[in-house]
Amino acid sequence: MTRLHVDWTACQGRGHCTELLPELLAPDEWGYPRSTDDTKEPAVPVALLPHARRAVRHCPRLALHLVGP
Ligand code: SF4
């Protein structure tokens, strides 16, 4: 299962990814992305892979990654 990973050393919490992928990410009280299913690395359903790839491409800090198959 492909998962989303946030590099917390790079993320600046501007929340762009939460706007592009609200199904999997929501902003916490400081604007950092948290998983909507409360897991560290949310699983990405196949149907959401194109949206997840788009969010990864648009992360201004290159902090968002897809991991796994
Ligand atoms: S878009 Fe990138 S830098 Fe911005 S909150 Fe998401 S992971 Fe962090």
Explained architecture:
The protein has one domain: Alpha-Beta Plaits (2-Layer Sandwich). The chain has a two-stranded antiparallel sheet. Strands 2-3 form a two-stranded antiparallel ribbon. It is globular and about 30 Å long. The longest helix is centred in the C-terminal third of the chain and has 10 residues, at 49-58. It contains 2 helices and 4 strands; from the N terminus they run E-H-E-E-H-E. With 69 residues, the chain is α+β, with helices and mostly antiparallel strands. Bound molecules: iron/sulfur cluster (SF4). Residues 6, 11-17, 33, 59-61, 63-64 line the site of iron/sulfur cluster.
In DSSP terms, counting alpha (H) and pi (I) runs of 4 or more, how many helices?
Answer: 2
Question: How far apart, in Å, are the first and last alpha carbons?
Answer: 6 Å
Average predicted local confidence, pLDDT: 95
CATH fold-level topology: Alpha-Beta Plaits
As laid out across the biggest beta sheet, the strand order is 1-4
Provide the list of bound ligands, each named once: iron/sulfur cluster
Low-confidence stretches are none
* SSE topology string: EHEEHE
The CATH architecture classification is 2-Layer Sandwich
Estimate the global geometry from the Cα principal axes. globular
- Write down how many β-strands occur, each being a DSSP E stretch of 2 or more residues: 4
- Portion of residues in helices? 10-25%
Oligomer status: single chain
Could you give a quick summary of the protein structure above?
This protein has 69 residues and is of the alpha+beta class. Helix content is 22%, strand content 20%. It has a single domain (3-67), classed as Alpha-Beta Plaits, CATH 3.30.70.
